[in-house]
Each structure stands twice: as structure tokens, then as C-alpha cells.
Design brief:
With 670 residues, the chain is α+β, with helices and mostly antiparallel strands. It contains 17 helices and 21 strands. The N and C termini lie far apart (118 Å).
Length: 670
């Protein structure tokens, strides 16, 4: 069988040898068209490859241009946001310093000029009084003072009510739209005026948009309704030119930043023709060179992006505020170094942790878990919450946390990001201040009782003298030996009443001067008032001063500290007694009145004295301000702190007859 196969193969090769010669000749004849077709196909393939490369190159170039304009837009947006934040900080500091200055007008004149010179974006800096009238402004070269814009008036009223500064929405001016920043000027706890800075958005762009960006792109600030608020551009951009819009973040609102390239790049077809001509001349070398250049440009862009990220990361790590980010399940996604130092754990130890967290205090774990679940459920109001944390070494510290949604580039919420502030030092300061205030109140009661000692001694001497007299009488009666026991009962009853009166005086003094923590309980204000008058009765009698008590019937009870309320009444009644000492005896009268006024009980102490001098009326409740010769000036300050501790307020009013009226309020308990 193998021989047969070999024979057949040999025959086949013999038979096909002539036919092969004819085919070779046919291929030779058809070689030119075939080569042409092959060349055309090759050329078509080359053009297809070049077209594909060109299309890819154009897409990469458009993407690179898009990345570049986005990077420029974000850079400008970050610069503007940082600049407005700096202006806000400087103006808030200036408002605070104006509130502390002795002369508001002099302080404004001294600070306004340098502020406008440094912050060149400020078109006008003015000082408004409590009625929002312009008292002074810098510069004064803008002509006749125009009335405030409604948005400025609204923001100023809001600043007066909340005690916080804010930026207004944009409003139109001749050159460009302006925004204003208003900050309250607080003096002695009262808003005395408003610091108003009008900022020209056009100047902001002129000052802070770099020339290399302005040379390539038109920079616009638009309102939410697409109206142009300010612009910096050399010429109008081409129609359909590449642009990018980003919202300018806090502290501004409802403003958008748009960057638009001046020239639109050549279309894909035009680029294809140009590149095709270059390819016909330089073939693939030019394409490779162009591609290499484009790759180098991308690498430079990526390097710049990495450098920008490193810069932002360095800025973030330099903060002393802890920052943490969590996903929708509460798992930690990110922590900065300040947070790690705060809790004593490293970043790898914290990332990926789920509740309960290792830095939660065990005794507060249930409350912290409830707050954590409420935030994840979307119950965050933007207000800070106080939580107790513990460090790795077990030490506890108080923190204040502000939570905000964590939004990705598509606008979807991916979790929550929080700023964590260590407020343990502030808590310690508040506790120290509270302790000092309690000590001051106790010292004030001791001083008051020392001033009243002679009157109390006189009042206490009366029952003691009566006891001595009855004791002598009983001794004489018993020495006779014929005294009936029933005859001594009246004397014994009188001695008992005198002992009760002496004990009552001693208890009142003891309750008034004893040192104790403030204890809020339901008290009868009418009963406290009567006991206070009884405590001061010796001093009032010695000063020949009458007391008239006018209390509404069925006054509801209030939740307050009995001794502290009694201390306020003692201070106010003794002040009225001092104010009445120069009056004729028949005119010396102190009136105590208490009535229900809405949700509070108002207590009023009135006298017929000379009142308080007008120059001291506004500072009457400040420390070390006194109308008495040799007075310390702490009595009314302590009264104010006690009343505010109970959630009420205290004020002074001058009566029409010239006397003084001090009133304070205590909220009703619910």
C-alpha cells in the first residue's frame, strides 16, 4: 500500500508540472494590477490607520484641553473662594475690634483706610449705625451716598439678629455687579452698628485672575439666572468654543464661574487634511513625533495635577481640625493627620473601621451610636453636636462635630464628611468661669451680710432681751415659793416665741450666706419675696423706709435657685434703700411688684430716689461700674449673671417721677 501511495504522488507531481509553468506566466502578467491593487489597499490601510490615529489624537487633544480648562477653572474658583474667605475673616476681625474700641468713630477712621488700601477689591467700606444709616465710609469719592440696596438691608437686619456676618447676593452697579459683606458691631453685648463692605466683582477678577489665563480664556462670573455679573476678556469668544462652568462655593452663594476659550480649534476634517499632507511628506515619522509630543504634554498635565493634589494634601494636613469621611454605612473612608493625633490612632488602624469606633467613650457609646445613626439617616441639621471621645491611652476629651454630605462628581451622596474640633480646653474654661461666678456670688452674699450685721444684731437683741427679762421675772416668782405652776405658763410661752424669732433670724442668715451648688427647684416667688423683706426688715426700719409689696394673686411657681433669687432681691432692695436715704422720711418707699407677663414672671423693684445718671445707664450692669461712693460695682453684674443663669433678663428704666425701676424676668417652668 505504501508503494501505491508513493507512485500516485510521483504521478501527480509529473502531471502538474506544465500547468505550474502556465500559472507562473499568468501571475507575471497580472502582477502590475495586483501590485496596484495591493498598493491602493496598502495606501487605504495607511490612510485608515492614519485617520484612526488622527481621530484618537484629536480626541486626546480635546480631552487634554478639557482637563486644562477644568484645572484653570478650579484654580480660579479656589483662588476666589480663598480670597473671599480672607476678606470675610479680615472684616469680621475688624468688626470685632470696632466693638471693643473706646471710640467707634475713631477706630473706624483708623482702620478703614488701610483696609481698603490692602483689600483693593473693596469698592466702599462703610459704618452703619443701629438704624442702618451710614455714619462714615471710605473712600468718599463715589458721589452722593445712595440708599442701601434691599439685599444689603436684609442681610444687615439678619446680621443684627443673629450676631453673624454674611455675604449678600449680587446686585447691579454701573461698572459690574457687586456683593456686600455685612458684619455686626457688638458693644457690651448689644449690636451697636453694622460694618458694610461693598466688593466689586470686576475688581476681584482683575486682581486675582492671572494673565496667562486671561490671555487664553474669557473669565465670567454669572448669576444663577445666567446673567453676567462680571467679566474679564479681551475679545468675544468664538461661537461653540470650549467652556467650563463651576459654582463658586462658600462664603458666596448663587454665583457661577465660567471659563471660555477665545478660539475654537479646527474641525476634525481640517485637521485630517493638514495631517494627511504632512503624512504624505513625512509618513509615519511625523505622526509618531506628534504623538510623542502629545504624550509628553499629557505627562506634564498629569505631573501638574499630581503636584496640585500634593499641595492640597499638604494644606489639609496642616490643619488642626480633625477631618473624617464615612460611607453610607458609617465605615471610615478617610481621616487626616489632625484627627489621628486627636484620637491617638494611625490612619491604617482607622480606615475601614465600622461602628462602634475605638475612639468612642464607653460610657457615652449608646448616645454616640444614636447620634451616628441619626446622621446616617439624614437627620443632620448642619448644627454642631458635642460628643465625648477617648484617646488610645483612655483619656477623655470633648469634641464638637459638624457633619455635611459627601457628594461625588456626579452629584450623588456617597456618605458624610465631618469636621471634628477638640473643645476640651473650652469646656474647662467654661467650668472654671462657672466656679468663679459661684464664688463671686457667695462672696457677695457674705459682704452683704457683713454690711447688714449691725441691723441683724439689733434685731436679734430684741428677742434675747425679752428672754432675759422673762427669765428674771420667773426667777423672782419662783423664789417666793408660793407660785402656782399655771402662773408661769404665759412667761414660758413668751420665751418660746422669742426663741423661735431668734432662731428664725439665724436660719435666714444661715440660708442666705451658706455656700452651695445652684439647685433649681419649683419655688413660690411670693414666699421668697416676703422672706427677703423680713430679712431686710431691720435695715429698712433703721433707714425709716417703708416697703410696699404688690404681687399678683396665684402667681405660678418658677424653677429657680431660692438663695440666688433672694440674693438678687436683696441687692435691688438695698440699692433702692441707698437711693432713698436723702429723701424726707415720709417719701421713702420701696415698691416690690410681681406679675405674669406672657411666658415669664416679671419682678419690679421701684423707688423714689434720684435714679441713675444717664452716662452710667448703658454700662450699669458692667463690672466695676457703681453709683455709690466706694462701691465695688459688682452687685448688679452678679444680679445679671444670676438672672441669665435662670434664662431670664434684667434691665433698668427711669421712672417719670425721677425714681429708678429695676426689673427682671424668670421663665415659667414646663
Amino acid at each position: 500500500m505504501g508503494a501505491d501511495v508513493q507512485a500516485r504522488d510521483t504521478g501527480a507531481r509529473a502531471r502538474w508540472r506544465p500547468a505550474g509553468d502556465a500559472g507562473e506566466r499568468q501571475r507575471t502578467v497580472l502582477s502590475a494590477p495586483a501590485l496596484m491593487l495591493g498598493s491602493l489597499l496598502s495606501l487605504a490601510g495607511i490612510f485608515c490607520v492614519l485617520g484612526l490615529l488622527l481621530w484618537l489624537h484629536d480626541g486626546d487633544e480635546r480631552e487634554a484641553r478639557r482637563e486644562e480648562i477644568i484645572r484653570d477653572a478650579l484654580w480660579v474658583e479656589h483662588t476666589l473662594q480663598f480670597r473671599f474667605g480672607a476678606i470675610e475673616t479680615r472684616l469680621s476681625r475688624m468688626a470685632y475690634e470696632l466693638g471693643k474700641a473706646e471710640s467707634l468713630e475713631a477706630a473706624f477712621s483708623a482702620q478703614a483706610g488701610p483696609m481698603v488700601h490692602i483689600e483693593r477689591e473693596i469698592w466702599e467700606l462703610s459704618w452703619l449705625d443701629g438704624d442702618l444709616n451710614v455714619r462714615a465710609s471710605v473712600p468718599k469719592s463715589h458721589g452722593v451716598q445712595s440708599p442701601l440696596k434691599p439685599v444689603v438691608q436684609s442681610a444687615s437686619e439678619m446680621a443684627k439678629r443673629t450676631g453673624r456676618g454674611s455675604f449678600t447676593p449680587p446686585y447691579a452697579r454701573e461698572d459690574s455687579d457687586h456683593v456686600s459683606y455685612v458684619a455686626p458691631i457688638t458693644r457690651g453685648g448689644v449690636v451697636a452698628g453694622v460694618l458694610h463692605a461693598e466688593i466689586a466683582l470686576g475688581k476681584v477678577l482683575a486682581q486675582h485672575v492671572p494673565w496667562w489665563i486671561a490671555e487664553k480664556r474669557a473669565v465670567l462670573i454669572k448669576r444663577g439666572d445666567e446673567r453676567v455679573a462680571a467679566s474679564r476678556s479681551k475679545v468675544d469668544p468664538d461661537k461653540g468654543a470650549l467652556s467650563y462652568t463651576v459654582e463658586i462655593g462658600p462664603p458666596l452663594s448663587n454665583l457661577w464661574l465660567t471659563l471660555t476659550s477665545y478660539r475654537n480649534r479646527s474641525s476634525l476634517i481640517q485637521n485630517s487634511l493638514v495631517v494627511a499632507m504632512i503624512v504624505l511628506s513625512f509618513l509615519t515619522a511625523a505622526a509618531l513625533i506628534a504623538r510623542e509630543r502629545q504624550l509628553r504634554g499629557r505627562k506634564r498635565a498629569e505631573a501638574a495635577r499630581d503636584e496640585e493634589y500634593a499641595f492640597r494634601r499638604s494644606m489639609e494636613e496642616s490643619l488642626h481640625v480633625g477631618i473624617r469621611a464615612r460611607d453610607v454605612n458609617g465605615r471610615l473612608l478617610y481621616v487626616n493627620q489632625a484627627f489621628c493625633r486627636m484620637v491617638g490612632y494611625s490612619e491604617p488602624e482607622l480606615l475601614g473601621q465600622a461602628p462602634p469606633m475605638p475612639y468612642w467613650a464607653p460610657e457615652e457609646q449608646e448616645r454616640t451610636q444614636r447620634l451616628h445613626d441619626a446622621i446616617l439617616a439624614g437627620a443632620s441639621t448642619g448644627q454642631g453636636i458635642e460628643v465625648l471621645f477617648q484617646r488610645r491611652d483612655g483619656t477623655r476629651f470633648d469634641v464638637l462635630i459638624y457633619e455635611a454630605p459627601l457628594i461625588d462628581a456626579q452629584g450623588q451622596q456617597q456618605g458624610w464628611i465631618g469636621s471634628v474640633l477638640d473643645i476640651s480646653d473650652r469646656k474647662a474654661s467654661e467650668e472654671l468661669a462657672r466656679t468663679q461666678a459661684e464664688k463671686m456670688q457667695h462672696t457677695s452674699r457674705l459682704v452683704t451680710m457683713g454690711e447688714m450685721a449691725s441691723f441683724l444684731a439689733h434685731d436679734l437683741n430684741q428677742p434675747l432681751a425679752a428672754i432675759r427679762s422673762y427669765q428674771t421675772g420667773l426667777k423672782n416668782m419662783l423664789s417666793n415659793g408660793t407660785t402656782n405652776p399655771t402662773d408661769v405658763n404665759p412667761a414660758l410661752d413668751a420665751i418660746g416665741k422669742s426663741v423661735e424669732r431668734a432662731g428664725l433670724i439665724i436660719r435666714r442668715v444661715h440660708n442666705f450666706v451658706k455656700k452651695s451648688e445652684p439647685r433649681l427647684e419649683l419655688i413660690d416667688l411670693a414666699e421668697v419675696t416676703k422672706e427677703t423683706v423680713a430679712l431686710l426688715e431691720p435695715e429698712l426700719t433703721r433707714g425709716h423706709c417703708a416697703v410696699e409689696v404688690s404681687l399678683d394673686v396665684d402667681l405660678p411657681r418658677v424653677r429657680a435657685d431660692r438663695v440666688l433669687v433672694e440674693q438678687v432681691l436683696v441687692n435691688l432692695i438695698r440699692n433702692s434703700l441707698d437711693a432713698s436715704k436723702d429723701l424726707p422720711r415720709s417719701s421713702r418707699l420701696v415698691t416690690l411688684a410681681a406679675a405674669l407677663n406672657g411666658g415669664v414672671i416679671e419682678v419690679r423693684v421701684l423707688d423714689r430716689g434720684g435714679g441713675v445718671p444717664e452716662h452710667l445707664a448703658e454700662q450699669l450692669f458692667s463690672p466695676f461700674v457703681s453709683t455709690k461712693e466706694g462701691g465695688m460695682g459688682m452687685g448688679l453684674t452678679i444680679c445679671r449673671s444670676i438672672v441669665e443663669l435662670h434664662g431670664g433678663g434684667i434691665k433698668y428704666e427711669r421712672q417719670t417721677n425721677g425714681g429708678a425701676c429695676f426689673s427682671f424676668t424668670l421663665p415659667l417652668s414646663h
